[in-house]
Amino acid sequence: MNELIEIAALLVMGPLVGVEFGVAAVFNPLLAKLPDAAFRQARGGGSRLLGAVMPFWYIGALVLLIADAVLSRSGLVIGAVTLMAAAVLLTVTTLVPINNRIGRWQTDADVSRELAGRWDRLHWLRVALLAALFLLLVISAH
Fold this sequence. Notes:
mainly alpha
């Protein structure tokens, strides 16, 4: 049973890290080059869509990591759970409120590239946490 949970955790965390890295390294830098009207539509729409989907992915990943930690009793997996908890805390306390503000942009006058840049910088911190926890998870795999 532990091996199935371990595999499931890897299969859920790997794409999560990849998607979040893609947002940070590719998607948002491309959007930043757009004029304000297109930037507002793309960033706002993306914020609303990902804001609706990502909570389920994060919750599922956290549940799998906790189950893996309980079953394996591995210090590395416990470390991964701790990093995931930090990523979730960062997300809920800082990134979600910023994301919600971006998602509410109605006019070009509402656009704040400074706010979007702040979200992007904090998102890179989340990507680093997720990459580190995925590395711990991979190392701990048998």
